[in-house]
Amino acid sequence: MSGQKCSCPWDLQDRYAQDKSVVNKMQQKYWETKQAFIKATGKKEDEHVVASDADLDAKLELFHSIQRTCLDLSKAIVLYQKRICFLSQEENELGKFLRSQGFQDKTRAGKMMQATGKALCFSSQQRLALRNPLCRFHQEVETFRHRAISDTWLTVNRMEQCRTEYRGALLWMKDVSQELDPDLYKQMEKFRKEERRQALEAKMGN
């Protein structure tokens, strides 16, 4: 009838291929999610797979150690700067006080207080001079953190995503292999060996 459309064989084949592709993607996503769940919960993974990534995991641990160390160093520099400013201010105040008291005291003790006060004021100025190199050092650490470490962190995240997909595929393959009939597999192997033997004999006969 004119109202009905005829489905051609290649249309059915294309539709079957599309449906199969969707199913494969869903299966792949399932096994990737399962692998991510295993990693997040800390469940035991295949020891051979883990052993194959031992060198990579050691390098990742080194990277995370550098990441933590840089953050701790940045915080320590900031805290050290605050302590230097506070100590310098207190030292300067004490030096001024001793010098003022020393001017009022005309004895030898007064001269000693003036000398001590002068030394303390000079020391406070020298201590403040440490701030400039510390600021430069802090800027270099922060630049390293926000550029080198951040860029490496993005690469690590992409690598971890690929590793999750890879291990998910391994789980999928393991699940499929467990469903295979070992007797059928042996028969297929015998058939392949016999096929190779006959091909070799035919080649030698020619």
TrEMBL record:
InterPro entries documented for this protein: AH/BAR_dom_sf (IPR027267), AH_dom (IPR010504), Islet_autoAg_Ica1/Ica1-like (IPR024114)
Q: One Pfam annotation, family name?
A: Arfaptin
Q: Where is the AH domain?
A: 51-206
The superkingdom listed in its UniProt entry is Eukaryota
Tell me what this protein is called.
Islet cell autoantigen 1 isoform X7
- The gene for this chain is ICA1
